[in-house]
Amino acid sequence: MSLEETERNTGLYRLVSIRQINRFLRNALRMPGAQENMVRNHIKPSPMDSILDLGCGDASMLAYFPDVRYIGIDTNPQAIAEARNRFGSKGEFMVGDFSLAWNMADGQFDIIIAYGLIHHVTDTQALSIYQQAYRLLRPQGRLVTLDPAFVHNQHPIAYLIGRLDAGAMVRYTDDYVRLGKEVFSTIHVEVRDDIQRIPSNSIFLECIKEG
Ligand SMILES: C[S@@+](CC[C@H](N)C(=O)[O-])C[C@H]1O[C@@H](n2cnc3c(N)ncnc32)[C@H](O)[C@@H]1O
What we know:
Blueprint: H1 3-6, H2 12-16, H3 19-29, H4 34-43, E1 50-54, E2 69-74, H5 77-87, E3 92-95, E4 109-115, H6 123-136, E5 137-150, H7 156-164, E6 171-172, H8 173-181, E7 186-192, E8 202-208
Parallel strand pairs: 1-2, 1-4, 2-3, 4-5, 5-6
Antiparallel strand pairs: 5-8, 7-8
Bound molecules: S-adenosylmethionine.
S-adenosylmethionine binds at residues 55-57, 60, 73-76, 79, 97-98, 115-117, 120.
């Protein structure tokens, strides 16, 4: 599948991808405190952790992290420029595809974050993210993911939001879990409908590397 098939980026999508509009919409739609809660309850970084963030965007979550070793990768140069301006040496920021991490050494990360990424990629790419994350994590390390999801008997607005997402690979919750289970045997799943101010469904996965 080509990028055009996994990513909607023409017309209105081009407008929404303008950084200022994107940031305004994100802040307007998200419940107050949602990001801080995600960091505290799902990412759970500890001081000195090594953290890799795939599709980090402007790395705004880093504001809620303690002192950690942080590497963020994103294809969007403007988002990475914003991250560098805001966080400077608090993190290392790379412009490029998430696969830039695939040549990093085994077992070096405590946490790998892929928030808002899996619904932008094909099943084959998602599997390579799970496989490479497994390799890059230390034993007991965790891959944490967050994506919009379809659920059965979904609120019609939530369904529409999933259908209209710029990432064209929004999946049913079971499909996200099935893909993750091909690599990780221990996965905690949480499906939430209270992340945004409008009806929407999100799936959080916490994939643990046993050992
Ligand atoms: C929904 S945003 C999430 C940003 C950030 N993780 C957050 O939670 O605020 C998805 C991000 O994934 C990035 N992205 C999409 N495809 C990518 C790829 N192949 N490699 C790296 N980043 C990618 C986009 O540029 C965008 O910044």
